[in-house]
Amino acid sequence: MAALIGVFATTPGQTVGVSAFIDPIASDLGLDRAHVLVLYSLGTFLGILTAPFIGRLIDRFGPRRLIVPAVVAVAAACGVMSLAHDAWSLGAGFLVLRAAAIAGLSLVTMQMVNLWFDRFRGRVTALAMMGLALGGLVIPPLVEPIIQGDGWRTAYLALAAGVLAIMLPVGLAFYRNRPEETGATRDFGRAPAGASAMPAIGLTLAESLRTNAFWYFSALTVLSNGVGTALMLDHVRAMAEAGLARGSAIGLLGAMTTTQAIATLGSGALIDRFGARPIGLLGLCFLGFSVTCLWTSPALVGGLAYAMTLGAMIGTLQIVYSAGLAESFGLKHLGTIRGTLFVIGVSGAAAGPLTFLWSPAAAYSIFLGIAVVAATLGLVGMRWESKRT
Fold first, then answer.
1. Sign of CA dihedral 34, 39, 45, 48
2. In terms of residue numbers, what domain contains 209?
3. Given 125, 154, 184, which residue is the final one in a domain?
4. Are 163 and 69 in contact (CB under 8 A)?
5. What is the pTM of this model?
6. Which tens digit of pLDDT belongs to each residue from 319-341?
7. Whether residues 114 and 257 fall in one domain
8. Beta strands in 170-218 (DSSP E)
9. How far apart are CA 143 and CA 146, in angstroms?
10. Which residue of 12, 97, 259, 352 could cross-link 230, Cys pair, CB 3.0 to 4.6 Å?
11. Same domain flag for 168 and 210
12. Where does a domain end: 184, 214, 244?
């Protein structure tokens, strides 16, 4: 529950949390909406570059010692956003906001899950990630009246106060380092008898770079972020071209989000039983079907076939990536490894929409090509693991 609240508290720095502020900020600062979006993209990419450094700090000091600095950083970043007065200061605000929420609080929270759970890591990771859905449902409706009444600057100050009020007590009361430090055991002693525990010593970043698993998970996070971002940004255009009205296209986003939530919970349980790599292949199947459907028959079942499999892909691959790193690399240097893959994933999110500048068909071809490469890496890795055992 503490991890779910921690993920929920990252909402001010998530795209769903920023989206309500884009138009009011653009109007107040006299900037084009496109200009604000470019600044947001640049701030996202530069902010996430701090993830490997923050990951190393987590490996060294643990979530317990870093939760207060992470929470204060998110609140301070909201305060910086409230002070933006031109393009430069707005870009700086986006940078610190994304760095604090995504590279900071999110990394700290998910590392705690990895440290405390082994056999049930998939399910607990899935539950924690539901904080994203909860944030998307709660935060925008809460801040909209403040934006309309007192302005977007006051809304950011309210978010800063809310993050401090919610997360400081939760972090101080429930965030912990390794269970061994408190005399506890992973999974709170509920793992089945004879279940294998995570190795005490894990791979370093340099060692992980030489493994098949690192590049497999890299491909999965690039696809999850890149394809998900690109297709959602192009969603209304693609559905209009298929003959669906704007209202129907917007309605499909609800079906996509619902399916994503179901897939998040379901894939967590599947990962605990079968491991992350095979469930990653299932996510790639969802991706292949969704992209192929959008390319050839976008209006199939009123667009539901494409939208629901896209949501299933995003939900599945996000959990595979989050839970699979500890499974493959251990825990000792996991913060550093995860931080590096954060950079790779966000780079995919930045590059994915750019493929549509060529043409939608070219974009779909690129997505499917990368999916084939990822599936090959996954199959080769699973075959090698089976031979080794």
1. negative
2. 205-388
3. 184
4. no
5. 0.73
6. 888 778 877 887 778 778 888 88
7. no
8. none
9. 5
10. 352
11. no
12. 184
